[in-house]
Write a structure and sequence with these properties.
4-stranded antiparallel beta sheet, 4 helices
């Protein structure tokens, strides 16, 4: 599974990023690896509703929750979200079941 994380830094976290974005990337890559994933990319988004975007591959829902728990407890983020990313093959493989809407 591939997941995109987005978040807004606290003032203290911004101070760390301003000191060394490369060090923040290295620490983030280690975090992804600690839950069995691989950091594919990390970008900063100045002026947007998110301060950064992170793409991690090879993790499951428990890995997503583990990342959100450790980062959330650190106080480094004011807000965050995670989104599952699908490529065309994964999207096409997702077939609806036999569900019918009630009264439909």
């Amino acid at each position: 599974m591939k997941v995109m994380f987005e978040g807004r830094y606290s003032a203290a976290a911004w101070a760390g990023v301003n000191e060394s974005a490369s060090a923040r990337m290295a620490a983030t890559a280690q975090l992804a690896e600690s839950v069995g994933g691989t950091m594919e990319a990390m970008y900063w988004c100045p002026g947007d509703e998110s301060d950064f975007v992170l793409i991690v591959s090879g993790i499951d829902a428990q890995g997503v929750m583990a990342i959100k728990k450790v980062v959330g407890a650190s106080g480094a983020l004011l807000s965050s979200r995670a989104r599952v990313l699908l490529d065309a093959d994964e999207f096409d493989a997702a077939q609806p079941g036999s569900y019918s809407a009630p009264n439909g």
